[in-house]
Amino acid sequence: MRLPESRLAVLVSLPRNEAALAQAAVRAGADGLKVHTNVRHRASGTTFGPLDAEREALRDILALGVPAGLVVGAAGSVSIAEMTAAREMGFDYFDVYAADAPSTYVEACGPVTPMVALGPGDGPSQAQALVRRGCGALELSTLEPDRYGTPLTLATLARLEAVASAVDVPVIVPSQHALVPDDLALLRAAGAAAVLLGAVVTGTDVAAFGARIAPYAAAL
Questions:
Q1: Helix, strand, or coil here: 93?
Q2: How far from the centroid of its chain's Cα atoms is residue 123's Cα?
Q3: N or C: which terminus of the chain has fewer CB atoms within 10 Å of its end residue's CB?
């Protein structure tokens, strides 16, 4: 997984697979992007189709030349055949909730970094077991959906520190909390390798997208 070595990375989860959103994020200073297939995204309200339906838009986003990861689905919608096809497109990593990942997920990723998202109740022991099974990065899902948009808490920082200190792979924190730029230093100090800005903080409007991302990139 391609991340800056000396600082926290700012990644952006696109609320739609649109090149205009990707371009705005890159201009605002994003180090990488995340796109989706086969899932309904809670925070943005977007339903993403299968790889064939999203392929043209994904190619346009990948053509920007910044590292991009692909969410390959949710419970019951992850297609190993689609993952095999997507490996050839140039994605930096694949991502799925660990609880939704097929047993052959790591092998299906091939040369693409296999990332999995921990559930809100998963801690260091679960993280260690996933790394032992070949996962190359972890997304620390921090909140149940009914708490999305709440401020960063001490409990989340403590959980992040516990997980990050237990594994030797990057730990990425998504903005399920309503993170503010000043939170990035706290996340870095607790062991995060990257923050993943999503719809909770970026919104979904193309016109405002870059302006909402820029303060986080400037805070590094």
A1: strand
A2: 18
A3: C
